Structures are given as structure tokens and as C-alpha cells.
């Protein structure tokens, strides 16, 4: 999810519902290639609430911490580990949070 660039970036479609990345802020390094923990990089603290680009970190893409919210929420150690508190979640399968016990158990088996 969001670990490769959208082949249809020029088309107008809902980028939030798209499985591919459209901006650096929603790009996620594939955790099986880039080993990083689901904790925020210290450079995030200096970015005033914005996701810090890798260019602001001395380690760049090889940083051992997360640089975007998408990286943190969809990291295998975090994905579907917390119950979704939205009464009507419209994200369906792409929601980072679980909605039922079977959904959580299925995600745990995949990660």
C-alpha cells in the first residue's frame, strides 16, 4: 500500500482511495526492503506537524525511523493493531485500523 507510484497520476481520481502514492507525504518505503521501525524520525519534531521529507534527514531513505504518517500507520508492526473508532468508516480495506476481530486476526497472519 502506497509503496509505489501511481501509474495514473495524471488522471483525476481519488488519490486517497488509490493504493498507490501520489505525493511524497503518502509514499511509504517498502518495509521488507528498507528496514525501519514504526517510530517517528526526530526530524519530524522539527517539521511543525508536517511529514518530514527524507531530504531533511541525514540518513535519507535509509533512516531507521518513519518519515510519513502513512509509513507509521501501515508499518507491519502497527497495521490493524488498533480498533477503528470511526462510527462509519468509509475507508474499507485500506483503513489502517481493524473493524472486527476476524479482520485483525487476518492482518496479524499476513504481517
Summarize the structure.
InterPro entries: Unkempt-like. With about 110 residues, the chain is mostly loops. Helices cover about 15% and strands about 0% of the residues.
Structural notes for this entry:
This protein is mostly loops and 111 residues long. It has one domain. It has helices spanning 69-73, 101-110. It is globular and about 40 Å long.
Helix content: 10-25%
Number of helices, where a helix is a run of at least 4 consecutive DSSP H or I residues = 2
SSE order: HH
Label the structural class. little secondary structure
Percent range for β-strand residues: under 5%
User: What composes the largest sheet?
Assistant: none
**General shape:** globular
Query: For the terminal residues, how far apart are their CA atoms?
Result: 13 Å
Rg computed from alpha carbons, rounded to a whole number of angstroms: 15 Å
InterPro entries: Unkempt-like
Keywords: Metal-binding, Zinc, Zinc-finger
GO molecular function, one term: zinc ion binding
